[in-house]
Amino acid sequence: MEVFKLLFLEQQKDSIQHRKTML
């Protein structure tokens, strides 16, 4: 279960990075 949480957090970080790049 912890692995899924880590993967989810990583995805969120990537999303934030993408948004910053778009701006």
Brief summary of the model shown:
This protein is mainly α.
User: What does the overall shape look like?
Assistant: rod-shaped
The helix-and-strand class reads: mainly alpha
How many strand elements? 0
Tell me the helix content.
Answer: over 70%
If you had to describe this structure to a student in words, what would you say it looks like?
The chain has 23 residues and is mostly helical. Helices cover 91% and strands 0% of the residues. The protein has one helix at residues 2-22. The model has no long low-confidence stretch (mean pLDDT 87).
Q: What attributes characterize this protein structure?
A:
0% strand; rod-shaped; 23 residues; mainly alpha
Topology:
Blueprint: H1 2-22
